[in-house]
Amino acid sequence: MQTALCLGLCLLVGVFCDLFLPMSEGKVYDSVIRLHVLANSSSEEDQRIKYGVRDAILAADCFKGAKDINAAKEDVEKAAKRAVDAANAYLEKEGTDYRATYLWGVENYPTRVYEEIKLPSGDYLSLRIVLGEGEGENWWCVLFPPLCLGAAEADVKNGKVFDAKSKKYIFRFKILEWFS
Questions:
Q1: Omega before 145 within 30 of 0, i.e. cis
Q2: CA 31, CA 144: separation in Å to the nearest integer?
Q3: Closest by alpha carbon to 83, among 121, 41, 36?
Q4: Per-residue pLDDT tens for 12-36?
């Protein structure tokens, strides 16, 4: 009797996970656009330049505050070239021997936790600004919903990405955390 009850409970949990969790995860993955700036290398100088590029991109106001994910996708596709132009203008001013390029598409990312933000691992639509070889540590934010536009005021020395006015956003799936 106990074995049958245990098997029935396992089957119920399995069906629940199969029916409901992928839809919930899909809502997060399909409603977030990420921005990454990948440094040429992890050297102190390239890291400093990465943050300068980040500030130049955000100051250029390339990304408008879209009201839905479809409008945000269109905005990012149009703004990607302007963002790279702003990055390259900064790189030229700094006298680097490399330039920026961009990649727009779906990328797989591990779970990331920064300050008050946690995004589960998975495939996200993202704009990646690659500086030179793109071999260094990266900086990221969420373009949509717009969580990174105030990040240019971040405290880089302490590794903070979001300012003190940031709201708390945590995307996670508790039942998946139990099983992992």
A1: yes
A2: 7
A3: 36
A4: 454 444 434 444 445 667 788 888 8
Residues 116-150 as b/e (b if ≥16 CB within 10 A, e otherwise) read: ebebbebebbbbbbbbbebebebbbbbbbbebbee
Question: Which residues, 6+ apart, have CB-to-CB distance to 133 below 8 Å?
Answer: 40, 41, 98
State the Cα–Cα distance between residues 169 and 120, nearest whole angstrom: 12
Distance CA 104, CA 126 (A): 6
CA distance 116 to 146: 15
For the stretch 95-124, pLDDT in tens is 999 999 999 999 888 887 756 667 788 898
Q: What are the sequence ranges of the domains in the chain?
A: 1-30, 32-179
User: Minimal CA–CA distance to 148: which of 39, 59, 70, 42?
Assistant: 59
Single out the residue of 167, 106, 132 nearest to residue 47, CA to CA.
Answer: 132
Query: Rounded CA gap, 50 and 99, in Å?
Result: 12
